[in-house]
Every structure is written in structure tokens, then in C-alpha cells.
Amino acid sequence: MQKNLTDYIFKNDVLNYESHLNGFSDSIFQSFNSKSKELNLESKIDDLLTGKIINFSENQAAWHPKYRSKFDSMPPKKENKFKHKNVITLGIGGSFEGPKLLIESLHDSNSDINHIFITGSDAYEFKDKVNNLNPDETIVIVSSKSFTTDETLETLKEAIKWSSNMENFIAITANKEEAAKYNIEEIIEFDKEIGGRYSIWSDINLPALYGPKSNFDPKLFLKGGHQADLDIQNNSDYLNFIKILSFSDIWFNNFAGKNTRAILSYSWKLRSFANYAQQLEMESLGKHPNQNSEYKNTGQIIFGGYGPTAQHSYFQLMHQGTQNICADIIASKEDSKSLAYAQAITQTKLLSFGAEDLLKEEEEINGNIPTNLFLLNKIDSYTMGYLIATWEHRTFVSSVMLEINPFDQFGVSAGKIFTKKYIEDNGG
Fold it and tell me: Do 5-58+220-410 and 80-215 share a fold?
């Protein structure tokens, strides 16, 4: 490892990574690394990957690594024998973000299938999105781990009013009994040990399998994720790479006043990656700190989106504002001749080091924004699996260091409880 982590480099056959982490020195890294040994980090990684009880508040394992080690844990591509033109997915959170990301990144732009995602609690959203669609040409996929998610169930009721043919409905859930109450004939069940924000490795991805022009290969996707698991166990360079990501996130958040990180994708195919990572990180790491932990700030605030658009909205604040922000920039080498790729490279340098020579004094760019640059060699099913599993590893290592459970979400549940009580109290 280089002494100066402002220019740490990691490369393999999937991605090239560069760190520009001004202030995060090798000595700081070593201090965190010593702490990780006290916390038995590598042993806990093994526990996660071998299916031991790691979700300690709910006393169960987290089975998403197990799913990606079994390359047949997803169904094959759908032939669409009924020649449906539309696939509506009803879901929210992990049931929504995962399939949407894979469809955007891996489906041909000239797809013969019209994919519609509906999240829920406002009935107008459903009516607006199904307008001019023929119910007889439409598959409705209802994705909910618990099948008790209020937003999804409210939308399902609207969908049943719109299309009474229950042969066109498919439920994907870990609670088959609840799904059966709605007379849905085809119910696909996955294990309750798969958390919602980790369900991208399960049958939740059924929508991405529809359409002959889908480039989503479920086996390659799982193999990519599994290879990242093998790497974190057996490849010290990869483990160091993950540690740098995690340790720097925690250090900047706790000791440098940088509690916010922007994730910016400079590939149109990855335009929703920030949304996916936002749920993964903030739902996993947004917890009260362990009483005995020396790190009192847990997860960072995550925001972001499509980089070229962001440059014309909030980059002014990042370049010349007074907020303390970190940044992750993602691009694909497939696009190396594009304007977006050039923007990814130049914005990484501007955020990290600022600029003086090309600008007037009053226009100088701040620089000194800790920035991670991820360059994928290409975007396909395998690399998407590897990228998403890598982000999960970053999140899990952070959770071990912060001494919190990344697999529960009582804060989300609290919102559901209070909403239900409000509706009951107000005659709903």
C-alpha cells in the first residue's frame, strides 16, 4: 500500500479504483486496521459469508451471500409466452430499487417490453402510470418480502380493480400465506433471511428477466457477486481496498466533519445506482452507535444521481460552497470516448485538487473534497453483480467497525406503526 492514500490504486478484471482522500493518511489507516483486529473483522466477514447468525437483533443469518453462491437461485429468463407488452412492478425499497437498476443497466434500449415501476401510497401514481395500457397485455408483479407493506398493498388493490384477471398477477414474497389472501395464483417465495435491501440476489429480480432483449443473465450476475465474496476472503489487495473505503467513510464522518457523501454516476446505464446505494447504506448504517464505540457518528448522509445532470444543479455547492462533502464517482471504460467519461475524470480532479490556473481568482474551485473514483471495465451482468456485492462489503465492514447491526431497520418499522395508528384514529 502506498504511504499517501491520496493516490491509492486498486485494479482487477472488473474495475479500476483510485482514492483521492486528502487527510486520510497511512497512519490513520493503520490505526483503524488495529481496531478492526480488536473487533475480529475478518472473522465476522467469514461468519457472514458462511451463513452463521450475524443479524443478532433478530437472531438469524443473512443469506444473500448464500444465494449468490448458488448460481441457480434465480429463475431463467421468461419467454413471455403470453406475449405481454407491459410488466408492472408494485413494490418499494429493495423490491423496487434492485430490479429497476438492473433493467436500466442491462436491458436493450429498444426493448419490446414496457417496464413500469409503481411505489405506492398515492393512488394517482397508479392511475397516471397505467393510463392507456391494456390490462390484457400486462403482467403485474407484486414484490414484498412481508406482503404487509401498506404502500404496496394499497396499490395492489388498485391493480386488481384495473385488471381482474388474476392469471396476470405474480407475487414475490417471503410470506406466502399473506400473498395467498389476494387470490394470486402464482406465488414465488424466497427466504425470510434475505433482507429487503439485499433481495437483489433473489427472485425479486423477476421483472428484469422479462423480454428477449434483456441482457440480464442471472447466473453471471450471481457469479459476479460471489467472486467479490471470494475476493474479500482470499485476496488481501481487495480486502485492503474495502477497508480503505470503509475506514475513510468513518474517519471523515467522525473526525473531519464530513457527514455527507455524493454518489455520482457518469454512465446513463447507472443513473439509479445512487438511489440503490442510498437505501443500502443509510438503512444499514443509520443506527444509534454502540455505547462503547469510539465512533459516535454512524452512517453518512448519502445523496447523488446522474453526474452530468448534477453538474448543473448542486455541483456549484460542492465546488465553491462551505459544506463538508465527500464524493464517489462511477463511470465505465466502455464510454471512454464520451463527454460523460471525460466529465467523470475531470470532476474527480477538480473535486480532489481544485483549480487555479484556468480561472480568475474569484472563480477558484475549492478542491480538498475526498473523492473515490470507480471505473468499471464494462457494464454487464457479471460486473453489476461484482459492483453491488462490493458496495455491500463496504457497508458490512463499516457496520463491524461501528459495532451496529446492518440487517435490521426498526426506524423504518416505527414509521409504519405510527402511520397505521394515525389512520385508525382518524377513521381510515
Answer: yes
- Selecting among 312, 360, 361, 362, the annotated active-site residue is 312
- Among 177, 204, 215, 193, smallest CA distance to 117 is for 204
Q: Where are the domains of the chain?
A: 5-58+220-410, 80-215
**Regarding the domain with residue range 80-215, which homologous superfamily does it belong to in the CATH classification?**
Glucose-6-phosphate isomerase like protein; domain 1 (3.40.50.10490)
Q: Which of 158, 193, 283, 392 is catalytic?
A: 283
Residue 111 pLDDT level (bands cut at 50, 70, 90): low
CB 189 within 8 A of CB 204: no
Question: Which of 3.20.20.70, 1.20.58.100, 3.40.50.10490, 1.20.120.1730 would CATH assign to domain 5-58+220-410?
Answer: 3.40.50.10490
pLDDT per position as a tens digit, 243-302: 999 999 999 999 999 999 999 999 999 999 999 999 999 999 999 988 888 899 999 999
Residues 6+ apart with CB under 8 A from 10: 16, 17, 237, 238, 240, 241
154 is catalytic: no
| 312: annotated active-site residue | yes
Length of the chain: 428
Query: Once rounded to an integer, what is the mean pLDDT over residues 129-142?
Result: 94
CA distance 85 to 215: 18
- pLDDT tens-digit readout, 320-346: 888 889 999 999 999 999 999 999 999
